[in-house]
Structure prediction request, 419 residues.
Amino acid sequence: MDLFAEIDSDAEQKMTRAQGLAMLKAFLPLAGRAYAGERNFDKGRGQHLSVSRLSPFIRRRLISETEILQAVQSRHAFSASEKFISEIFWRTYFKGWLEMRPSIWSEWLASASSAYEDENYLKACQGKTEIACFNEWAEELRETGYLHNHARMWFASIWIFTLKLPWQWGAAFFLQWLRDGDPASNTLSWRWVAGLHSRGKHYLAKADNIERFTNGRFAPYGVLDEGALPIMASDPPPATEPAWPSAPPQNKYLLLLHAEDCLVEELSLPAAPEAVLVLPGSLGNMALGEPHQLRDKSLDNLDDEALSDAGARAAAHYNCPIHVVQGQTEDSFAGGIYQDIAKKLVEFASQYQLGNMISSYLPVGPIQQNMAQITKSLGAEGIECHQLVRGYDRICWPHAKRGFFPFKENIPKWLKTLP
Ligand SMILES: Cc1cc2nc3c(=O)[nH]c(=O)nc-3n(C[C@H](O)[C@H](O)[C@H](O)COP(=O)(O)OP(=O)(O)OC[C@H]3O[C@@H](n4cnc5c(N)ncnc54)[C@H](O)[C@@H]3O)c2cc1C
Prediction:
């Protein structure tokens, strides 16, 4: 039976919870030993069936880490599914690591904006280099919004060590196109490849490894710099404990929905909201040096699709009205301030005669930065915005102070207790 017959190709996936759950169900039989044995093979465009391709859904929390971990455990012994489980926790680890060192994100953002003028940068993004596999991956990324993990590693390594382009620009190219683009996983993976995450340990793409794990589709012998040294830079700042927000008051409130968390019916809210306000997907974008934005506009639409799905579920679950807050897309980033969205939120607050809004927690990234501007404007009107942290993040993230291996030691314990 073709388990994936019902599943759309990457570029066609609908960004809904139903689609994410269907993909999880289809992938579940493969999440054990099959995944451990096959996950490193990049079988080419449209053939990534040995990995889950769940990342765009997890990224927006259309499906949660907890439910994936539970589903996997109900199907496979830990010994068989350990590899898949630990990949889910790589994501959690990176989220926690960046949350405790937010300056890594702002420094990256500041250094990425100079990329667009550079001819070699543009050639690499257009897949016009002398390296066939690299060109294919650049095209696959732009056309499908997905790259296999091993291809991401090879691509980033060739970008940094063979093409000698700044890693920050490569991270910008990925965020521009990836359907699962994530400030933590992306920035920190690029740093990891460069040798900046585990100091002095870099990832070098090698022709024999590419030949083996692409099943011979590519064999770039003699064209890669396989002996390059890691990038040197100063140590990252020390971790500071996440500054978790305090619990929201018990007052009546409006629920704000953003694309960092599209599963709000799972949140431990103080009571049902008076209404759900769905924020625009464009909040996930931001200016990366005028006239460029962080990501392609199609990804704003993808977030809108996820938010529309999440809004309908939330309104049904809490039996309350739903409103879509439309933000102007043209010139929204002028000054980086979403005054038009703030204005609309003030109008809703006045319509419901409420001074409280609650959203799920906003981790480091563009939505947090754009929302900070909006929250400031709301504060000036006497409207308070509170954030609710998921138990999963609250428990796991503070353990991401050092490397993945000490973090990983907690996994067996967490699997028994995680909310
Ligand atoms: C340079 C580079 C950039 C990357 N940028 C992103 C990004 O922007 N967003 C993103 O979600 N992942 C990123 N990754 C991690 C990883 O490549 C993707 O999560 C994975 O390829 C998604 O495909 P999948 O869902 O089929 O993964 P599967 O192999 O099926 O894994 C299941 C889930 O585990 C998580 N996961 C798997 N591998 C990793 C990993 N190495 N690091 C963190 N989480 C992981 C993802 O949520 C993934 O959906 C990056 C990796 C590299 C090397």
User: Anything to note?
Assistant: Residues 78-99 form the longest helix (22 residues). The two ends are 34 Å apart (CA to CA).
